[in-house]
């Protein structure tokens, strides 16, 4: 093999020599970067969650039946109880009183076949007049159909005032007069209106000595319980 000799007198330019050397070196190939995805500005929807298996409920326990309703308890303060001369389980006092036409009636003789509501009232007492109206409008009719009755005993009015108040209330039941309070004084010392529910023999099952929403609710509950316990014959 012959070797090219370069005359010493003729120097090879450095640029040419560098080019020759570079051409002999291996060239490193650099991979181009992968293009980035174009952002569209629309957020990607999150993946749907995997369904969670529903827990099977325990075997349902049978609901316990509600206890049957009972006659409400009469709760009075000592002061109010002191005004009552008869209590639950006592007999309503015997007595005779005239009606609006002057005819006399023995209390025990005019009781209903199954129960009787007895109201002591006065025309000048707003609460007792309202109760008289409520009894006439909502209770007297259905109660009469089921073997019950209402006796409204007016306390302290003249026969004319009692008759006028009973007419305005449309009280289509027995109204008795106690103008001198002689019969009322066998039952209580004061406080009107007073309401008593009696059984067929005149025993007091429940009573109250005011008239309010709770009084009406307890009165209706007492009536329903007594009628349910004593089937109509």
Task: Describe what you observe in this structure.
With 233 residues, the chain is α/β, with parallel strands linked by helices. The protein has a domain of 145 residues: 3-Layer(aba) Sandwich (Glutaredoxin), CATH 3.40.30.10. It has 6 helices and 7 strands; from the N terminus they run H-H-E-E-E-H-E-H-E-H-E-E-H. It has a 5-stranded mixed beta sheet with strand order 5-4-3-6-7. A two-stranded antiparallel sheet has the order 1-2. Helix 4 links the parallel strand 4 and strand 5. It is elongated and about 95 Å long.
**What is the straight-line distance between the termini?**
146 Å
Query: What is the top-level CATH class of the domain at 85-229?
Result: Alpha Beta
Overall average pLDDT: 84
Query: For the CA atoms, what is the radius of gyration?
Result: 51 Å
- The total of helices stands at 6
What tags apply to this protein structure?
single chain, 233 residues, alpha/beta, Glutaredoxin, 5-stranded mixed sheet, two-stranded antiparallel ribbon, 7 strands, 28% helix, elongated, disordered N terminus
Could you give the topology of this structure?
Elements: H1 14-24, H2 78-81, E1 96-98, E2 104-106, E3 115-121, H3 126-145, E4 148-155, H4 159-168, E5 174-178, H5 184-187, E6 194-199, E7 204-208, H6 213-229
Parallel strand pairs: 3-4, 4-5
Antiparallel strand pairs: 1-2, 3-6, 6-7
């Amino acid at each position: 093999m012959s070797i090219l000799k370069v005359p010493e007198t003729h120097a090879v330019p450095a640029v040419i020599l560098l080019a020759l050397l570079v051409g002999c070196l291996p060239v490193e190939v650099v991979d181009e970067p992968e293009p980035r995805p174009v952002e569209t500005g629309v957020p990607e929807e999150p993946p749907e969650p995997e369904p969670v298996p529903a827990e099977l409920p325990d075997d349902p326990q049978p609901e316990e039946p509600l206890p049957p309703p009972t006659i409400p308890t009469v709760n009075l303060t000592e002061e109010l109880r002191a005004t009552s001369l008869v209590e639950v389980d006592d007999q309503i006092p015997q007595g005779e009183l005239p009606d609006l036409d002057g005819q006399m009636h023995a209390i025990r003789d005019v009781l209903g076949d199954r129960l009787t509501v007895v109201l002591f009232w006065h025309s000048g007492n707003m609460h007792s007049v309202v109760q008289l109206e409520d009894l006439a409008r909502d209770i007297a009719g259905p109660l009469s159909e089921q073997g019950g009755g209402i006796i409204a005993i007016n306390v302290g009015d003249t026969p004319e005032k009692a008759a006028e108040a009973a007419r305005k209330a449309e009280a289509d039941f027995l109204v008795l007069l106690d103008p001198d309070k002689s019969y009322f004084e066998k039952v209580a010392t004061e406080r009107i209106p007073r309401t008593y529910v009696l059984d067929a023999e005149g025993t007091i099952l429940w009573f109250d000595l005011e008239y309010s929403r709770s009084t009406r609710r307890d009165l209706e509950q007492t009536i329903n319980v007594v009628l349910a316990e004593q089937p109509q014959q």
